[in-house]
Please model this.
Amino acid sequence: MTIDAEIGVACLVCGAICGTPAYRHDGAASVSSTGRAVALPTVVYVCRRCGHVQTPPLDDISGYYANAYDVHLESDDADDLYAVRDGVAVYRAQHQANVALAKLSLAAGASVLDYGCGKGMTIRALLAARPDVNAAVFDVSDVYRDAWNTSIPTENQAAYATPAKWDGRFDAVLSFFALEHAGDPHGFLAGIRRLMRPGGALHLTVPNVRRNVGDFIVVDHVNHFMPTSLRRVLAEAGFVDVRIDEEAHDAAYVVNARRGVGDRVAGPAESEVASYVEEAVGYAAFWSTATEAVQEFENEHRGRPAAIYGSGFYGVFIASRLTDHSNLAYFLDRSLHQQAKRVHGLPVLPPETLGDEVDVVYVGLNPARARAIVAGVESLQRRPREFFYL
Ligand SMILES: [Zn+2]
Model:
């Protein structure tokens, strides 16, 4: 990303100059995609030409973690809890595999690459359902080799760069939650397109800030796509038949497209952009007032035993904005994965263990679903409590 104090920041999708940030937070901490507090300001730009939302890239986020005690390897968090359905936990990797299989209608023996696969948990879930698939994995690092070795033959593994012999090979390329980190989204998509056979299928997920407003201020996501900027970058990278599904994953765009042949197709008209720009500016306003809202509620309930429900992004955001942690007892979270952690130096407990002494609960969940989730948690409803919602 080009940053020039005189000119401003160039949009990573269309190259327009973005002007002053739509959102800027210099105090306290920023929050990363893995729910860690990071001692850096958050700066977010909105492009008025294509609707793209972007955050300047961090060179080495590991150097900035404010609370280093919970640092461990979990680059894709594919074992995050996605949903609890009829009392059964559905983890993200399983959900992603289910959606990919439903969207792709893969032929028997199809060659499928997971590009930016992390530990490879999604491709493993996909293979469990479709053992006939010829699966391959790629990531920019080789720290996941041991995990890959459990389900992928060595000749179908690539780290750092893909081998030349993979060009034009794949019937389908999958990419889950990687494009948001790409400082060069055109280059990222061109790299994927090169690996696909002509007419091959792309299946990609990327965070949807419209469904999950927290993504707007996730400090290590360079790209926060709006539908117009997503369509534009895909068209410019040579993809056709682009379909964007905003329902199949509750916090992400699910994109399906094909590798086009010949001329690039035009992206969306600029006239479509204005309403998305307005939406994005609204998210900036939401987050600008969120810090004040947390602290106002804290002042009104000072000294009362409190807990935070939700230990992911939103819970960490609230914890990072509270000025006094002495009455904060613990986090509550339904995810077993989260219960194994300490967050902000506090334990993460199953919701059923909520003690009667806690009478203030900060709800650290996606605001779009927070009230519905809280209504369904028996222990929160056992007695009257004061709830804070973002
Ligand atoms: Zn733009």
